[in-house]
Amino acid sequence: MNGERDLVLHKPTVVPEMPSALSNLHNRLRSGICASARHGELRIMVFPTYVDTHGRPRIKKSLTTWDLANAVGLHHLRELTARESVGLAAAFDRPDLPPVDLDDPQHEKPLQHALLFPDTDDETPVIAFVRFRIVPVLRHIGWLSSDDD
Known about the structure:
Elements: E1 5-7, H1 20-23, E2 31-35, E3 41-46, E4 49-51, E5 57-59, H2 65-72, H3 74-81, E6 87-90, E7 113-118, H4 124-140
Antiparallel strand pairs: 1-2, 2-3, 3-7, 4-5, 6-7
Helix pairs in contact: 2-3
């Protein structure tokens, strides 16, 4: 009703025993979906997950595009941006920010990235949520190898 949408991982009432990093993931790493500057376009922030020394999933908000590509996987970012009308850009329009270019990822200035997609696209934000938030935790606990897609 208010134009906001969220993707949230919920924890069922009964779950099997699992590593703390995974059990701590539930309902912690929500991703907000909001309108972008262009009509008919939405955005989801690209904040990859990492697991801290206490086994708690955390997010990293500002990264260089090169660091983002290393954290998420350049081929995964390219797969997402190859979808129809989907793009990766700086989350905020400021003149001092370097361009976001997956062909030549910059490694000079950290910034917040956003994935832009059409408001009729219900798949891209879910794929992005899984890729940016859930997969890094599964890799951390060893349930996915770094080679798994």
